[in-house]
Task: structure prediction
Amino acid sequence: MSQLEIKNLHVSIGDKEIVKGLSLTIKGGEVHAIMGPNGTGKSTLSKAIAGHPDYKITSGEVLLDGVSILEKEADERARAGIFLAFQYPSEIPGVSIANFLRAALQARLADGEEIDASGYYKRLYAKMDLLKIDRKFTSRAVNDGFSGGEKKRCEILQMAMLEPKVALMDETDSGLDIDALRIVADGVNTMRGPGLGVLLITHYQRLLDYIVPDYVHVMYDGRIVKSGDKTLAHELEAKGYDWIKKELATAQA
Amino acid sequence: MKPPTETDILPDPAETAVMDNPAVGIDQSAGNFSYNMEYAFDAGTGLSEDTIRYISSVKKEAPWILEFRLKALKKFFSMPMPTHWATKDLKNIDFQKIRYYLSQGQKPKRTWDEVPDDIKKTFERLGIPEQERKFLAGVEAQFDSEAAYSNIKEIVSKQGVIFVNSTEGLREHPELFKKFFGKVIPTGDNKFSALNSAVFSGGSFIYVPPGVKVAQPLQAYFRINAENFGQFERTLIIADEGSEVVYMEGCTAPKFSTSTLHSAVVELVALKGAKIQYITVQNWANNVFNLVTKRGIAHEDAEIKWIDCNIGSRLTMKYPGVVLKGERARGEVISIALANDGQHQDTGAKMVHAANNTTSNIVAKSISVGQGRSTYRGVVHIPKHLKGCKNNTECDALLINTNSRTDTYPAISVRGDKNSTQHEASVSKVSEDMIFYMQQRGLTEGQAMSLAVNGFINDLARQFPMEYSVELKRLIDLEMEGSVG
Result:
């Protein structure tokens, strides 16, 4: 079973420290939700783990199955099994989803190995059927002119094809209407299983009604300040984040 | 010919990974080799009347051709370098240090077995005989100044199609040749068309009889083998009424430390209702000055389409044009240019509307990598007295790095109120976020760049015959692989 361990992680953008000592372990089969107000470092955490060059890890450790990934380039981390579902996925004009995914899978093969085209399309179509995505979708250029919902569905399809060990899902619910949210959540739920650990980053409880987490963490000012089970999410929904802020202020006083 | 399928334009990481592309390099793996040749005919170094007389005499030309050449030489010497609008780099060409004519003989062989060994090996390494077997109606393979091999499939020659080199064309079909030669591009059109008119050798002469539709493409391959050499082929294609032909040309040269000059003139004549498609995929080494004049005349209901793909060279200046002479004639230029470090692609298109209801379309895409520079120059002319003319111009530039450069100089003059034109231009940059996104899916930085560039030109690459779009994709992969740290 895979495991992602984040140990006392500090992340800066430029000179500004955003993540200030965060520790979390995600095991295969577990779904962790990180909630918190805007600007507390949730997205920074996911991008830093994925290896975005603008996000500097100043101290701490990130281990995938016991091996540090911090010396690896973003593409090496991806091939090792880290998947980031982007909040704002990039558009790649002229490159179809089918070709993009094929290139991504080809990049995982050893030199000289060639992807089997018919097997690839068979698998792609099976995943699309599972996610209830129209087959015409894959001939469109990646995210080019997509609606918010289409972009997120495209992320889920990529995740299904690339079969990561750990998926970091950054505000996957943002910009989705309720129907799109349901489709995306169904997709994630079908992928749930011992082979996959999930970190759900979300602002709202709403997503967690559809993807029910095993653990809920509250992030505030670059740290996890409270952890619990799914009931914590409901408590936050009812009381708002101010409740956490007050609690913190009391504890520090 | 079937259009490229989606899967054909996919980069092949396994293939690109094994290639060692130098930082400023063009694909040297396929084209960068040369043989030490003993040339039977050599006009020596430098340019004078004697050079012209030598070339004309070894070709045993008719007196009118020698006269034509000498007149052109005078014109060439009298014209200034066009550095008032073009790059100053042109001044670095030393015309007295170039060799103007090198060959093993003036008569091309009809079978590969008869071609001298080193020349045969050259074209085999470039894959020409194989392509000929697979999908071409005829091939002409030019080695320095003359065609070493020229052949056309029997089924095509039986239809009356003529496909020979220009030397043979002038000798064996003088009436046909003379009627159109120099009529589309006059000697004094520009300094380099004058130079070509003085020293031209090789190139293709094609005539397609009325109503004949040549099913497979005819191909010419232009290979420079010698150092300090100038290649000046002259191509003339005549498509008679209602006929159709596709012509493809490929070009390579080894990388020498000194510069090489390639200055061709290509004239196309599409008579009433005829269709000519002219496809170029050039991959010059980055010491080649590539200064080419290409133009076609489209008569009534005729169609001329240039598909022009420029990779490599130190400087390319090329603006394929169509003169829309007859009513309802159509002209099109599809242009792709990739400028890497130390390269300047100065390309574009010319559309001259000279009859009612004529239409023209220009789609130009350029990619600048590292310190590469690309320039688009376009001329569209629709005079006031015409009606129902339409032009569409799109030029898109993609910058890979912050120090890349692109310039656009469109000149569109549409007069009168019964014509229409559309012009769109865009400049985009491959963003860091886009590259990160692709890397996050497992692609290396080089693979990501390559995919972004292939995506940028995808809609144009689809218009290439499949074999050429695969080649184009491979060349782009190699360029991009060498462009990232």
User: Anything to note?
Assistant: The beta strands of chain A are 3-13, 16-27, 31-35, 55-64, 67-68, 82-85, 166-170, 197-202, 215-220, 223-228. The interface with chain B takes residues 50-54, 73-75, 78-79, 83-84, 86, 89-96, 98-109, 111-114, 117, 139, 141, 158, 162 of chain A (CB under 8 Å). Residues 173 and 206 of chain A are 8 Å apart (CA to CA).
